[in-house]
Every structure is written in structure tokens, then in C-alpha cells.
Amino acid sequence: DTSVSPSPPAVRVRPLTCSETRRGDRRVVHSLGDGTVHVSAARHDATFGFSAVFDAGASQEAVFEGSGMRQLVELAIDGFSCTVFAFGQTGSGKTYTLMGPLTQSETRPAAPGLLGLMQRSFACLLEQSRSRGSDLALSASYLEIYNEQVRDLLSPGPPCALPLRWSKTRGFYVENQLSVDFESLEAIADLLLQGSQRRRTSAHALNRHSSRSHALLTIHVRSRAMRGARVSHTPLTWIPQPSACPSKQGTLCFVDLAGSERVKETGSSGELSVEANNINRSLLALGHCISLLAKPQGKRTHIPYRDSKLTRLLARSLGGSGITLMVACVSPSSRCLSETLSTLHYASRARRVTTRP
């Protein structure tokens, strides 16, 4: 069992918005190529290196292919626990990177070129299952963490809080969550839209569609290799039959983190302010865990996964037996400089985390 690095973080820099351009914000984040991003502003001049950097002109397809997402899908089929999560300031493009346009619905689908990492991974997963000749059983579960409560986004009726448990064999898990089987791209796309429409969002000064919860969509992949078995009365005909190989069980988890935000900047008050404080607290706990995991093995202290529901559910992905891809989303605006630098430092620490897949 050899310690290896997870997929190193990738960075995506969104374009300046129309309101930022009208306001006269300067572009202070630039991609230099070769996985390097440069931040240049008054009293700040820093360069960061990552596995990949996608600038404002990068297509959704380029992000999928260049981030290593296709390899994660293949590893999930091979029985590994794989996770991809997007993080960054509110309004930095996390949900767009994972899902595509927020305006899409069953009656108004997104243009194929705008689909995010999720839909492209679903298509890749089903394509791989057909090309490998594997007998795959696929199911999906979809949860959100809202104000430190875990809620099922696929269960009928109003979302209700579910208990988060611990066991030696499963680690942290959500009790009574619904898992839905699917066999087609249309079916899983419908589940994604159904759950996303139930997720908590609100509008504030920085983002008209701000996610107020962390969302986790998990694809469960159970596979058994298939081998040909000749039919006795027709020598040239083969039919697939299960091999003697043990079945593999992998997962592919997509985590859309709510964005970090400063209440003063967003103008939030009342319920929005409570939500923001809970979001920032859980992101702080996540950052603390990553900082400790980034230390050399001999210098690590206790990793406080129990500090939040988010870190409990991501414990295996961050420092356990999983393979994790992080996509750091940042704004190029001079007004967001402080949050952008914080996100880039956050991602730099994550590069040093190792797991045992």
C-alpha cells in the first residue's frame, strides 16, 4: 500500500462579469501557461503552480479533459473511491464548472458545449461501461449540508434532516439516504436537475444564485468483469457470463461547496447571515484539516474531521483511501483580490496532501 499524491489541484479563472467591467474593476489574475497563474496588484505580486490552469477562454470540454476527470471516471469503474470538488469565493464559477448554466431545466436543457464536469462524467461512465463489456450496476445519491444539517435532495416531500453515523467498516455515513438506480444518461441527468432544483440558493450583492449549502452527488459503481461463454449448439456464438472475479465497488462523488463570503461584502442579514456564518465555519474546518494533512506524516497531529458535517463526509476523500481532484475557482477582479489569494493559498496547501488509494 504505497502513499501517493491525489490528482493535484486545478485552477479555473472565470471571465470578468458585465457588472465588474462597468464598475471599472481591473483584471489582476493571469494564466502564464504550463500550469502557472500570476496575481499582480498593488502590494501583491505572487505566482502559483498547479497541475492545470484554465483561463477565462477555456471551454467546458477543455476543463474536463485537462483536469484529469476522465481518468477519475475510469478509476471509479476499477473500484476506487474518487471525489472531485470545486471551491472558491461565492460567484467564482464553482456550480457552472460542475453543472453548467444555472438556467437549465428538463424543458430547457443546456447547450452540449456548456455542460459541466458532472454531465460529461456521466456520459464518459456509460460509454466506458459499454466499451469495456462490463456488467455495471449504477446508482446515485444526492445530499446537501444546509446549516449543519444533512438533507436528502432526491427523497420525495420536504427535505428533512438525516443522521450522520460512524462505523469501523464504513467510516462516516448518512443513515436512511435514498439511492436511485439508473441505466441511461437521460435518467441520471434528470436526477441531477431534480436534486439541484431542491437545493437552497439565495441572491445577494455578489451572486444572484448563491448556493447556501454544500451539495454532494455520489455515483455508486458496482461492476463484475464479463467473459465470453460459447453456446454448445452454435460454435460461432458467444454470450456474456459473469466471470469468477470478485465484483468491484467504486464511487464517484461530486462536491459543490457553497462559496466563502464576507457578510459585509454581500450585504447579508438575518437568515442569510446565519447561513453565511455556517458556510464559513465549515469551510474553515475543511481548510484546517487540509493544512494538517499537508504536513509530513511524522509531524501530523490529530485530524479534526468531526469539527463539521462537511469534513466528516469528506474524511475518506481527503486523507483516507480515496483519489481526489480539487478545482479552485477564482475571480480575476481586483475587488476580489483578497478572496482569490486565499483560494490559491488553500489550493497550494492541498497539493501536499497524500492518500492511500
UniProtKB/TrEMBL annotation:
Main location: cytoplasm
Subcellular localization: Cytoplasm, Cytoskeleton
GO BP term (any one): spindle elongation
Residue ranges annotated for the Kinesin motor domain, each copy included: 6-353
Record has Signal as a keyword: no
Domain of life per record: Eukaryota
Residues that hold ATP according to the record: 88-95
GO cellular component, one term: microtubule associated complex
Gene Ontology MF: a single term: microtubule binding
InterPro entries: Kinesin-like_fam, Kinesin_motor_CS, Kinesin_motor_dom, Kinesin_motor_dom_sf, P-loop_NTPase
SMART domains found in the cross-reference section: KISc
Chaperone as UniProt keyword: no
Keywords linked to the UniProt accession: ATP-binding, Cytoplasm, Cytoskeleton, Microtubule, Motor protein, Nucleotide-binding
Family named by the database record: Belongs to the TRAFAC class myosin-kinesin ATPase superfamily. Kinesin family.
Protein name: Kinesin-like protein
Species this protein is from: Pluvianellus socialis
Native organism taxonomy: Eukaryota, Metazoa, Chordata, Craniata, Vertebrata
Gene this chain is encoded by: Kif12
